[in-house]
Amino acid sequence: MKATIERATLLRCLSHVQSVVERRNTIPILSNVLIEAEGATALKIMATDLDLQVVETLSAVSVDTPGAITVSAHLLFDIARKLPEGSQVSLEAADNKMRVKAGRSRFTLPTLPRDDFPVIVEGELPTNFEIPAATLAELIDRTRFAISTEETRYYLNGIFFHVSDEELKAAATDGHRLARYTIARPDGADGMPDVIVPRKCVAELRKLLEEALDTNVEVDLSATKIRFTLGGEHGVVLTSKLIDGTFPDYTRVIPTGNDKILKVDPKSLFEGVDRVATIATEKTRAVKMALENDKVTLSVTSPDNGNAAEELAADYGAEGIEIGFNANYLKDILGQIDGDTVELHLADAGAPTLIRKDDRSPSLYVLMPMRV
User: Fold this and answer.
1) In the chain, which residues have pLDDT < 50?
2) Which CA distances in Å does 229 have to 60, 255, 259?
3) CA 77 distance to own-chain centroid
4) pLDDT reported for residue 40
5) The CATH number of domain 2-116, selected from 3.10.150.10, 3.40.50.10230, 2.120.10.30, 3.10.580.10
6) Is 279 in contact with 300 (CB distance < 8 Å)?
7) Which CATH number is 255-367's, of 2.130.10.120, 3.40.50.300, 3.40.190.10, 3.10.150.10?
8) Backbone phi, then psi, for 240, in 5-degree steps?
9) I want to staple 201 with a disulfide (CB 3.0 to 4.6 A). Which of 240, 272, 293, 366 is the partner?
10) Under a CB-based contact definition with an 8 Å cutoff, are residues 290 and 262 in contact?
11) d(CA 217, CA 236)
C-alpha cells in the first residue's frame, strides 16, 4: 500500500477515529486503526473497540498502490499532530512496517495484518430514517447529563429511544433525575424497536455531529445494533452495539398532579444555587428551597462551613413549602433551560418535582428531592 494525503485531512480523520480506541488494550490489534487505500484517490480509515466502530472515507492526493494495513492509532495521530502545517504525508506499507514521510521527517512504525482486524457484523438493520444533525445534537445535549454511570445498572448507561404515537422520544435517568426530549416521529421510524444507545456511542456521535450540523444523519437500526451515517458518501459511519437490557418504564415517575407551580428565571436560580452551594460539602450537597408568596429562599447549612442563604424574586402563589435538592443535579437541569422562565411543578417535600421551560417545550425533567 502506498498513498499520499494532506496532513490536515489525515489529522481531522484520525482525531475522529482514534478516540474510539481505548488507551489500554489487552488485544494489540484493537490499539490499531485499519487504513485501506482503494481506487485512485480514496482512503478508508477504521477503528473499533468491538462494541463501537467508526469508518471514515477521505480523499487522498494520490493512491499509488492499493492495499490495507493496520497501525497504532494514537501513535499515528500524535505524529500527524506534530507534522508541519500544510505538508503532504506519504504512507507506505511494506515488510510489516509503515513508512510515514512528510517534508524532512521520516518515521517507521510496526504494523499488524489487516486480516486480524475485527469488524462489527451489522446484519439486517430494518428500521431506517433521517434526522437533521442539529436536532440530533440538541436531543443528546438535553438528555445525556442524566445517563447513569453505575455499571451495576448497565441498562441505564445510555439514552433510551422509543416511538410512541407520532413522536420519537429520548430519555436518560440515573434514578435521581430524569431527562426526556421529544421530537416529531421521522418518516420510517414507525415500528422501530425500543433501543438503548450506550454512553460511549453517544459521546462519539456528539463529537462527530459538531462538524456536520447543517446536514442530515441517516439512522439504521435493529434490536441489537445501530448505525449513524454522517456527511453522505465521503463521510463518517458510526456503528454500535446496543445495550442488551430493558429500560424501566420511566413514565411512571413523571408526576401529573403537582399543583404548586414556581416560575422563576433559570439563570438567576442557577447562579443563586451555585453561590449558596459554595459552602456545601460532599455530605451536605443539598440546597433547601423555601417557597413563599412570590419569592424563593435558597439555603445551605454545613456543620463544617457554616450556612448561606439567598432570596430570589419568583412567581409563586400556592401555599408555602420547603424542599431540598442535590445542588449539582438542580444546576445540571437549569443549565439546559433556554429563555427567561423555568417552571417547577411541586407537590410536597418528598415527591418528585417536574421541571420544564413550559408545556410546549420538547424537553422535560424530573428531579427527586433530598431530605434537608
Assistant:
1) none
2) 21, 37, 44
3) 23
4) 82
5) 3.10.150.10
6) yes
7) 3.10.150.10
8) -140, 145
9) 240
10) no
11) 10
**Phi-psi region at 298: left, alpha or beta (left = phi > 0; alpha = psi -120 to 50):** beta
How far apart, in whole angstroms, are the C-alpha atoms of residue 21 and residue 73?
Answer: 7
Find the DSSP H helices in 112-197.
133-143
Contact criterion met (CB below 8 Å) for 312 and 345: no
Residue 285's SS3 state is coil
CA dist 272 and 298 (Å) reads 7
User: What pLDDT was estimated at residue 93?
Assistant: 95
Q: Which amino acid is at 85?
A: E
Phi, psi of 158 (to 5 degrees): -170, -175
Return the amino acid letter for 188: G
The 3-state DSSP class for residue 305 equals: coil
Give the model's pLDDT for residue 3: 95
Question: What distances in angstroms separate CA 49 from CA 19, 241, 302, one per listed residue?
Answer: 10, 11, 45
- Residue whose C-alpha cell is 451515517: 229
Cα(299)–Cα(184) distance, integer angstroms: 40
**CA distance linking residue 298 with residue 319, whole number of Å:** 17
Does 127-252 carry CATH code 3.40.50.300? Answer: no
| Residue 83, amino acid | L
d(CA 341, CA 352): 20
Quick one: which of 316, 340, 324 has its CA closest to 267?
Answer: 340
Using DSSP bridges, classify how beta strands 158-164 and 342-346 pair: parallel, antiparallel or unpaired: unpaired
Identify the pLDDT of residue 233. Answer: 63
User: Cell 447543517 appears where?
Assistant: 214
Fold matches, 2-116 and 255-367: yes
Do the beta carbons of residue 307 and residue 301 sit within 8 Å?
A: yes
Question: What is the domain partition of the chain in residue ranges?
Answer: 2-116, 127-252, 255-367
Query: Could you tell me if 176 and 368 are in contact, meaning their C-beta atoms sit under 8 angstroms apart?
Result: yes
Specify whether the CB–CB gap between 170 and 184 falls below 8 A.
no
Q: What dihedral do alpha carbons 85, 20, 50, 188 form, nearest 10°?
A: -100
